[in-house]
From TrEMBL:
Domain of life: Eukaryota
The keyword Magnesium appears for this protein: yes
Gene Ontology BP annotations: methylation
Descriptive protein name: Putative indole-3-acetate O-methyltransferase
UniProt entry tagged with the keyword Magnesium: yes
GO molecular function: metal ion binding; methyltransferase activity
Pfam family, one: Methyltransf_7
């Protein structure tokens, strides 16, 4: 094999915000074509979303209603959830006798590296008035705009947003904790590319980073949300109190993905240091991890905070076909982490890495189908008056 040895350029935390995104475009490994599981998981939680929307204060004098999806990515899932939100709010206005609907706006927000072009190409056309929109299929009833930026900081004017929604995004950290990449630190994650099974110092550094990030998120939203507004948040979670057990995220990134990195080292294609300087910036919190931050912030009333079983991220037509299962895991893994891997080791070695993930997963297909289950933290929050 004549693949090039990877150089020692490391994706710094300063660059992470510019790079991090789900894989764009409409190709085989794109997020747009590999987010069906997330869509199914989101749909299974629509009843909880609608309960949150019922908490939003509506007024007969409202002329505009603003919805935001934070971490929108670039597939149809974000469009589907915005439709659910706006249709439910329309019914609520009708229930209070308000038939001349306010105008709706939807802001789709993600990091600047997100593939907004693909997302906007999926947007249905806007009809000139609300009555036509409601009577027509495949049209939208809201004005749309993209808002690039990190949701761990301010993104919108004060008191301007009625509903915030974010699904499958808050487990992504704003940065890798610096101590995790510092060889002199007890938190240095030597020999690993993820924290599943790592030492206590390493996982504590990730936990602290998650809680710092979530605190920043809540502080920003507490300024931007209108009085009487509500927020529905979903992120990867875990059922274990032990943060070294990252549950489904651990099985996705801490097993066959990890082994594929080790293979590159053993084959002499990358150095140990190159592997160790790559870490997946994901932390699956426990319910307690999440609750502590919300309560410390104090700006939001907790309507509901629970762990929800989402199911498997793998979408396969033939579960008995080990090759298909292996390919499904590799593509699923690549659709969410491929951009970071490409930036770290280059496209050719990235191809080799995910081929390794596919082969290893295929050899363990039965176990993956049985054990790879995602649990989500679901939070329904209302702005404290």
């Amino acid at each position: 094999m004549s693949l090039p040895m990877a150089n020692n350029v490391v994706v710094s935390n300063m660059e992470l915000e510019k790079l991090l995104s789900m894989k764009g475009g409409k190709g085989e490994a794109s997020y747009a074509n590999n987010s069906q599981a997330q869509g199914m998981h989101a749909k299974s939680m629509h009843h909880l979303l609608k309960e949150t929307l019922d908490k939003v204060e509506l007024h007969a004098t409202d002329t505009a209603f603003v919805v935001v999806d934070l971490g929108c990515s670039c597939g149809t899932n974000t469009l589907n959830v915005v439709d659910v939100i706006i249709n439910h709010i329309i019914k609520r206005y009708e229930a209070i006798g308000r038939h001349d609907q306010p105008e709706f706006s939807a802001f789709f927000s993600d990091l600047p590296s997100n593939d907004f072009n693909t997302l906007f190409q999926l947007l249905p056309p806007l009809l000139p008035n609300m009555e036509e929109c409601l009577a027509a299929n495949n049209h939208r009833s809201y004005f749309a705009a993209g808002v690039p930026g990190s949701f761990y900081r301010r993104l919108f004017p004060a008191r301007s947003i009625h509903v915030f929604h974010s699904a499958f995004s808050l487990h992504w950290l704003s940065q890798i904790p610096e101590s995790v990449l510092d060889k002199r630190s007890s938190a240095y994650n030597k020999g690993r590319v993820y924290i599943h099974g790592a030492g206590e110092s390493t996982t504590n550094a990730y936990k602290k980073q998650f809680q710092t990030d979530l605190a920043g998120f809540l502080s920003a939203r507490s300024i931007e949300m209108k009085r009487g507004g509500s927020m529905f948040l979903v992120c990867l979670g875990r059922t274990s109190a032990d943060p070294t057990d990252q549950g489904g995220a651990g099985l996705l990134f801490g097993t066959h993905f990890q082994d594929a990195w080790d293979d590159l080292v053993q084959e002499g294609l990358i150095s140990c240091e190159k592997r160790d300087s790559f870490n997946i910036p994901v932390y699956a919190p426990s319910l307690q991890d999440f609750k502590e931050v919300v309560e410390a912030n104090g700006s939001f009333v907790i309507n509901k905070l629970e762990v929800f079983k989402g199911g498997s991220p793998l979408v396969v037509n033939q579960p008995d076909d080990a090759t298909e299962v292996g390919r499904a895991l590799a593509i699923s893994c690549r659709s969410v982490s491929g951009v970071l891997v490409d930036a770290h080791i280059g496209d050719k070695l990235s191809d080799e890495l995910f081929l390794g993930v596919e082969k290893r997963a295929a050899c363990n297909a039965k176990e993956l189908l049985e054990k790879l289950q995602f649990f989500h933290i679901v939070a329904s929050l209302s702005f404290a008056q």
